[in-house]
Amino acid sequence: MNSVMQAAPIRPLIAKGRNAGQFRPLNDIILDRLSAVKSAVVILRRDGFSVIDVDHMKGLLPRIWIESSARCAKFADAFTVKWATDADGPYQVNETRIGEVRVCWTVRGH
């Protein structure tokens, strides 16, 4: 048996109808998340941001990583989710939301 545990995707229960109490099909969850990511990427592209990565199945909400730029200051509701230091020096990870998608970027040198 593999000793490394992997997180299972979160699968909410169906609340109403004939299938109430059953887990929502994983394909439906993935399609919803991909649709939310696509909508967020369209908004980010329109506003001049560069998407550099997408984590669509990690955690409760999908996460898009964007390239850090001065335009990130427009996200008035952004908050810092991590401060750390690596071989390149100190950095912080900031996050905001577009719909049901987390949008994150890294700021170096703070």
How would you describe this structure to a colleague?
By secondary structure, the chain is α+β, with helices and mostly antiparallel strands. It has one helix spanning 26-46; strands at residues 51-55, 63-66, 79-86, 89-98, 101-108. It has one domain (26-108). The chain is built from one helix and five strands; from the N terminus they run αβββββ. A five-stranded mixed sheet has the order 1-2-5-4-3.
Short overview:
The protein is α+β, with helices and mostly antiparallel strands.
Give me some keywords for this one.
alpha+beta; 5-stranded mixed sheet; 1 helix; elongated; 5 strands; 110 residues
| SSE-based structural type | alpha+beta
How many structural domains in the coordinates? 1
What gyration radius follows from the Cα positions, in whole Å? 17 Å
Output mean pLDDT: 85
Give the uncertain stretches in residue-range form: 1-8
Helix content: 10-25%
What sort of overall outline do the alpha carbons produce when their principal axes are compared? elongated
SSE blueprint:
Layout lengths: L25 H21 L4 E5 L7 E4 L12 E8 L2 E10 L2 E8 L2
Parallel strand pairs: 2-5
Antiparallel strand pairs: 1-2, 3-4, 4-5
